[in-house]
Amino acid sequence: QQQVKQSPQSLIVQKGGISIINCAYENTAFDYFPWYQQFPGKGPALLIAIRPDVSEKKEGRFTISFNKSAKQFSLHIMDSQPGDSATYFCAASLLSKIIFGSGTRLSIRP
Amino acid sequence: SQTIHQWPATLVQPVGSPLSLECTVEGTSNPNLYWYRQAAGRGLQLLFYSVGIGQISSEVPQNLSASRPQDRQFILSSKKLLLSDSGFYLCAWERDRFYGYTFGSGTRLTVV
Questions:
Q1: What span, in angstroms and rounded, lies between the C-alpha atoms of A17 and A100?
Q2: Closest approach of chain A CAs to the CA of B17, in angstroms?
Q3: Checking DSSP bridges between strand B3-7 and strand B19-26, what pairing results, if any?
Q4: Which residues of A sit within 8 Å Cβ distance of B?
Q5: How far apart are CA A38 and CA A32, in angstroms?
Q6: Which one, of B21, B65, B71, B66, lies nearest residue B51 by Cα?
Q7: Does the pLDDT value for residue B61 go beyond 70?
Q8: What CA–CA distance (Å, rounded) separates B23 from B36?
Q9: Average pLDDT, whole number, for chain A?
Q10: Pairs across A and B, CB distance < 8 A
């Protein structure tokens, strides 16, 4: 019930392509869904977040799509760049406790 | 502005030795504080969180403990380290309920 399932585990995308990472959750009480980006040897940094009353949120090249009925949400990175190569974590929050997905290692080929 | 400090950055400790990792937050008061562990190539495991001085919630039973002696100080400890305690330890604080966490730079712990 408290898990957040993330896929794929790793992803290789050509420069300029679209990167898509998917997540699913079970607990309908989750009320905040952030995405984090982590570079090697660094702590994760908040990238973008959405609340379940919104179906889509866009910030620059990054877009979250949220499907409340399916209990799924996804991150789309448009025009993917080599600098986007990192590990991405989806997450879900309830009562100030954030549960993270297992992470997706994204590599952008030049 | 708010900042989070975590030290040391790297640590190599023998099995059976004690551990003390410190995390402090500046520029805010009464933050929620968290300790996470990340094994190599793995996800983030919540170890402890605190909503106030002296208040500690444990998520995973193990030989680690946490304390919050001051409002903006969070300490992760162990009396005797195990090989399985190796990992990347991250401290985080929460500014606002819907603002997400801000993570520190992490401590890479290797138990040998």
A1: 26
A2: 24
A3: antiparallel
A4: 32, 34, 36, 41-46, 49, 51, 89, 93, 96-103, 105
A5: 19
A6: B71
A7: no
A8: 12
A9: 95
A10: 51
